[in-house]
From TrEMBL, chain A:
Gene3D superfamilies xrefs: 3.40.50.360
PANTHER family xrefs: FMN REDUCTASE (NADPH)
Protein name stated in the entry: CE1759 family FMN reductase
Keywords: Flavoprotein, FMN, Oxidoreductase
Domain NADPH-dependent FMN reductase-like: 5-152
GO MF entries: oxidoreductase activity
Listed EC numbers: 1.-.-.-
TrEMBL record, chain B:
Luciferase-like domain residues: 1-294
Protein species of origin: Paractinoplanes globisporus
EC number: 1.-.-.-
Stretches for region Disordered: 1-21
Record InterPro entries: Bact_Lucif_Oxidored, LLM_FMN-dep_put, Luciferase-like_dom, Luciferase-like_sf
Bias type Polar residues, positions: 9-20
Keyword Transport: no
GO molecular function, one term: oxidoreductase activity
Superkingdom in the source lineage: Bacteria
Entry-linked SUPFAM superfamilies: Bacterial luciferase-like (SSF51679)
Keyword flag Thylakoid: no
Protein name: LLM class flavin-dependent oxidoreductase
Family annotation (PANTHER family): BLR5498 PROTEIN (PTHR30137:SF8), LUCIFERASE-LIKE MONOOXYGENASE (PTHR30137)
Keywords assigned: Monooxygenase, Oxidoreductase
Length: 203, 368
């Protein structure tokens, strides 16, 4: 079976976190959907709460501490990303954005990204379309068409087979198809020379 | 091996007293610091170039010329000279001038700068940072080696029949180091010319510095300048010392916590772990510094950052006493004992002149 890796970024702050709960469901659904495409997906979770101080320090010093470096490298090496943020005051959380800000600028270029968000009520659902989608579009990520929003109510007993479940399945299927039709990611070594010096001298 | 200090020339409020030195005071202090570096037996004093507050050093050759007049042995250098926004013709002239006045006690380190608006302030485009560094240095290299230069490039007005004056002392150009934190193209540039490569080192994890130096060494050999371990490597370092290491930590912490570059960010302990910063006893500094060799190999120049973040002059001079009195003598001995004979020292005016004369004698013998 072909191997692929998916990094799941979860920006929930409380523990337990409904953002993490949604992230877990998206990851499991993606593994399942990818298996149907003949792909074995390994998921790696990046919990931004654990990296909050490192992210602030990176913003101030310009370099990532070891644990953050490991997370950023995992994102760069991933075949796809599932990015889940709580919606705070009409947008992604500041911590979520700060993590995206400290990634090297081409990290997400060409990478399939499934965007998802949580909030107290469904009134915040379009933040996915007016905040997360343009953010990843700017970074040249391939944002899959279905985004997944979960309000607190969606975790209620009545919703187990309801809309949330169907959106998760649809988004996971779309992400799995993107994984299937792409070659595995190869990471560019930042220290590798891409040009010959004589050519640089000639412009 | 050469040991010295480098200054970024910041004027920073002392967080323990709330006092900010005047520009005049800080500029005079830097001269005192440089003179004391010579008095305690250090080899190199290097000064940065900035064009914005809170830094005073916009004109390093002026300061270095003044220091040259008051010192005898100290090698004067920069950290860094902006190869992107300065006119290479002016760099050629200024540093040749300084060579004559200081009897050859000059080299320089080229960098691209760390303040974005400096580019537009000097009429340049920051997106062309690397091409500017490459073209400008190519011209600088030529101006110091050819009497009459005809030149045309992309970033500067062409030159016809131009001779940069004064000529380099004894027609030997100052040795050049190329400094970069994260651009492999600059390591490549240093390797291409057989120049030195200086890793700032102090703001990044060691693993990063290790990769940059390894690239430079490999490419130095690729371009036929010698074996990888014969490349000329310099490293930055950052220390604060007291006899008793806990005293050093207690005294330095408020300066660290409020420092312009990393203040209000990582803890002193985190930063000490992640970067080469060493705060403790002279012995701890010796041990940590000797450890740099483990990941960059035998190297030629070690510069320490001592005067920054609002540390008062008296403290900086005490740091110099400890560095020159207790640390550097041990490091000299230990590094020398470890260094194989085929690894060269950093070039100086005297060694470059001797090498040039030897090469000329050899070619005369061949033609005779």
């Amino acid at each position: 079976m072909n191997q692929r890796t998916v990094v799941v970024i979860s920006a929930g702050l409380s523990q337990p976190s409904s953002t993490r709960l949604l992230a877990d469901q998206l990851a499991a659904a993606t593994v399942e959907a990818a298996a149907k495409q003949g792909l074995q997906v390994t998921t790696t979770f990046v919990e931004l709460r654990d990296l909050a101080h490192d992210i602030a320090n990176n913003l101030l010093t310009g370099f990532p501490p070891a644990a953050l470096k490991e997370a950023a490298d995992a994102v760069a090496a991933a075949d796809a990303v599932i990015a889940v943020s709580p919606i705070f005051t009409a947008s992604y959380s500041g911590l979520f954005k700060s993590f995206i800000d400290v990634l090297d600028k081409d990290t997400l270029a060409g990478k399939p990204v499934l965007i998802a968000a949580t909030a107290g009520t469904a009134r915040h659902s379009l933040a996915l379309e007016h905040a997360l989608r343009p953010l990843f579009a700017y970074l040249h990520a391939v944002v899959i068409p279905t985004s997944v929003f979960a309000a607190t109510d969606d975790f209620g007993a009545d919703s187990a087979d309801g809309t949330l479940r169907s959106r998760i399945t649809r988004a996971a299927d779309e992400l799995a198809r993107e994984l299937e039709r792409r070659d595995p990611v190869s990471v560019i070594d930042p220290f590798a020379l891409t040009v010959n010096f004589e050519d640089l001298l000639k412009h | 091996m050469q040991f010295g200090i480098f200054s970024v020339s910041d004027i920073t409020t002392d967080p323990t007293t709330g006092r900010t030195p005047s520009e005049r005071e800080r500029i005079k202090d830097i001269v005192t610091i440089a003179k004391h570096a010579e008095e305690v037996g250090l080899d190199v004093f290097a000064l940065g170039e900035h064009h914005n507050e809170p830094f005073f050093s916009s004109s390093p050759t002026t300061t270095l010329g003044y220091i040259a007049g008051q010192t005898d042995k100290l090698l004067l250098s920069t950290a860094t000279t902006l190869i992107t926004t300065n006119d290479p013709v002016k760099i050629a002239e200024d540093f040749a001038m300084l060579q004559h006045l200081s009897d050859g006690r000059v080299d320089l380190m080229l960098g691209r700068g760390n303040t974005g608006p400096v580019y537009p302030w000097f009429g340049k485009d920051i997106r062309a940072g690397i091409p500017l560094a490459i073209e400008n240095y190519s011209l600088l290299h030529q101006l110091w080696r050819e009497q009459v230069v005809d030149w045309q490039g992309k970033f500067r007005t062409p030159l016809q029949s131009f001779t940069s004056t004064p000529r380099p002392l004894d027609e030997v150009p100052p040795f050049v180091w190329h400094g970069s934190i994260r651009s492999p193209e600059i390591a490549e540039q240093a390797a291409y010319y057989g120049d030195g490569f200086f890793a700032n080192h102090i703001f990044w994890p060691a693993s990063h510095t290790q990769r940059m130096i390894a690239l430079y060494r490999e490419r130095f050999a690729h371009y036929g300048h010698g074996d990888p371990d014969q490349a000329i490597v310099g490293l930055g370092g950052q220390v604060f010392m007291r006899k008793n290491s806990q005293d050093a930590v207690n005294e330095f912490r408020p300066y660290f916590d409020n420092a312009p570059v990393y203040g209000h960010g990582p803890s002193l302990e985190d930063f000490t772990r992640e970067t080469p910063l060493t705060v403790g006893s002279p012995q701890q500094v010796i041990d940590r510094t000797l450890g740099f060799r483990d990941y960059v190999g035998d190297y030629q120049r070690q510069l320490f950052l001592l005067d920054h973040a609002g540390l008062p002059l008296k403290t900086v001079l005490e740091q110099l006493d400890l560095l020159g009195g207790e640390v550097v003598p041990v490091l000299r001995k230990e590094f020398a004992a470890l260094k194989p004979a085929h690894v060269p020292d950093a070039p100086t005016h005297a060694s470059l002149l001797a090498a040039r004369n030897a090469a000329e004698n050899a070619s005369e013998e061949v033609s005779a």
